[in-house]
Amino acid sequence: MLPRILDFLRDLQKNNDRTWFQANKERYETMRKGYLDIVQQLIERIVVFDPGIAGLEAKDCMFRIYRDIRFSPNKQPYKNHFGAYMAPGGRNSLKSGYYFHVEPGNNVLSGGLWMPEPKLLKKVRKDIYDQMDEFVAILEEPSFKASYPELEGETLKRNPAGYPSEFPHDDIIRHKDFCVSTVKPDSFFSQKNWMDETVATFEKLLPFNRFLNYTVDEYLEIG
After folding, report:
1. Which of helix, strand or coil describes residue 161?
2. How many domains does the chain have?
3. pLDDT for 223 beyond 70
4. End-to-end Cα distance, the chain
5. CA–CA distance, 78 with 15 (Å, rounded to integer)
6. How far apart are CA 140 and CA 28, in angstroms?
7. CA 84, 89, 94, 95 torsion: positive or negative?
8. Collapsed DSSP state (helix, strand, coil) of residue 157
9. Nearest Cα residue to 81 out of 22, 5, 145
10. Bridge partners of residue 24, in order along the sequence
11. CA distance linking residue 213 with residue 215, whole number of Å
């Protein structure tokens, strides 16, 4: 199914306008349903090692294909990808989870906290600083690092207020996002075992997500 979804998205990239989309609406709905079925299978497989997402439904995880173009210079009305965020509460969750992104030439498996709200970001930074050795050990664990080689997202140019000007791993504290990812070629989804490999790659995120979600859970209890 995923090779067909990628074919649809390639066509959408070439014809990203409402006229084409409306003419291909039935095809889109078929691809969307196929993607939702895949995401539901992923959820059921992830629950085996992360019971925290038990009961999650794919429809609550998938992002809309329609772009908000009101304040964007890019006026294309549709996204060129399908994406789903699997975390307690679904796509709008504050918690660290599992993101499954299908886009021709840019298929992404990722996890972590993307653009956390300011108060949460401040608390995450503090907890990482206080437990830096544990956090770095997670990032540097060989199996994890093989799939997720570096911490990604926006960073500050200097250490945030309240932290020493220099200390080991201050590059981590400068992050405004705490997420990691791995990119797969389109051919990955033509392999018979692609889902097994995807689930295994997501499972490597478990210590990373648990570390971050300990802070998120405290934040939500206080908030």
Report:
1. coil
2. 1
3. no
4. 42
5. 10
6. 41
7. negative
8. coil
9. 5
10. none
11. 5
Q: Report how far Cα 118 is from the mean position of its chain's Cα atoms.
A: 19
Number of H helices, E strands in the chain: 9, 4
Distance CA 112, CA 182 (A): 12
Tell me the C-alpha distance between 126 and 204, whole Å: 24
Based on the number of CB atoms within 10 Å of its own CB, is 38 exposed (0-12), middle (13-18) or buried (19 or more)? buried
Q: How far apart are CA 2 and CA 115, in angstroms?
A: 28
* Distance of alpha carbon 20 from alpha carbon 29, whole angstroms: 14
Cα(190)–Cα(179) distance, integer angstroms: 27
pTM, 2 dp: 0.95
The 8-class DSSP code of residue 193 comes to T
pLDDT digit string (tens) for 127-176?
999 999 999 999 999 999 999 999 999 999 999 999 998 888 999 999 99
Pairing of the two strands 178-184 and 107-113: antiparallel
Structure tokens at 110: 């990722």
Q: Which residues in 90-200 belong to E strands, given as ranges? A: 97-102, 107-113, 178-184
Domain containing 149 equals: 2-222
Enumerate residues 6+ apart whose C-beta is below 8 A from 95: 87, 88, 89, 209, 212, 213, 216, 217
Contact 176, 154 (CB under 8 A): yes
Strand order across the beta sheet in which 97-102 lies? 82-86, 97-102, 107-113, 178-184
Q: How far apart are CA 56 and CA 39, in angstroms?
A: 10
